[in-house]
Design a protein that fits this description.
The protein is mostly beta strands and 124 residues long. It is built from no helices and eleven strands. The N and C termini lie far apart (40 Å).
Length: 124
């Protein structure tokens, strides 16, 4: 069984920076893609960013491209999301997920394990 635990969320002002972390338990972390998703109250869960088993393959939602950076440290079973120039519309619960395979993907159905999420609130 894989467990994913997110951390790093909080309350920040617009324009600030924030880094989220996701630590995964279990074996073979480096064999799978990882992703970040977010869900705001009353809205559907949406894709934010993903990174393939090869750290060179990344994918971003248009809404965060150029502001967020996804990365991973396979030696530490950890994934990161660096958030720069955050906006009030970035407010949501951020969840990390493990892909079913190694390629980066934006589709929710391509992920089989999910964390509980960490709240990010951006004030204007």
């Amino acid at each position: 069984q894989v467990q994913l635990v997110e951390s790093g969320g909080g309350l920040v002002q617009a324009g600030a920076s924030l880094t989220l972390s996701c630590v995964a338990s279990g074996r073979s972390f480096s064999n799978y893609a990882m992703g970040w998703f977010r869900q705001a109250p009353g809205k559907e869960r949406e894709f934010v960013a993903s990174i393939g088993y090869s750290v060179h393959n990344t994918l971003y939602a248009d809404s965060v491209k150029g502001r967020f950076t996804i990365s991973r440290d396979n030696a530490k079973n950890t994934m990161f999301l660096q958030m720069f120039s955050v906006k009030p519309e970035d407010t949501a619960v951020y969840l990390c997920a493990r892909g079913r395979q190694g390629y980066d993907t934006s589709s929710l159905r391509d992920y089989d394990f999910w964390g509980q999420g960490t709240q990010v609130t951006v004030s204007s």
